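Lecture 7, part 2: worked example. A protein chain together with iron/sulfur cluster.
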Amino acid sequence: MAWLVGYPREKINWHPSIDPEKCVKCGMCMNCGRNVYDWTDEGPVVARPNQCIVGCNTCANLCMGNAISFPDKETVREIYKREKIWSKVKKQLAEEGTIKTKQKTEEKGGCCEGGCCR
Ligand code: SF4
Ligand code: SF4
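Predicted complex, written out as structure tokens:
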């Protein structure tokens, strides 16, 4: 997965959870383009959690019952910082030509003054 640049997806705790008490079975979550959910007689279930795109929460935003929740995003941000995923993604995007980076930034080895991505 490009946005994880080789970091194991299963080590990142990011996937939807459904509160069945709140679910009104509107079916909006089934629009997920990553095929994370299956529909059952009882409604949707999170069948393939690791296919969820890290950082995405579209289904929660559109859920009619407000029944979908995600882990604390700060824990994910901590992993991205600790494992230098941000800097690796940026490097890959630059190599692909998707983004342009300044020479000065590359020499410093980071994207900001905060040191988060070095
Ligand atoms: S979008 Fe929410 S309320 Fe609708 S079926 Fe999915 S979990 Fe249930
Ligand atoms: S957050 Fe995005 S990728 Fe993950 S299950 Fe919901 S719609 Fe699919």
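The pocket of iron/sulfur cluster (ligand 1) is lined by residues 18, 23-29, 43-44, 63-65, 67-68 (CB under 6 Å). The mean pLDDT is 89. Keep this in mind for problem set question 3.
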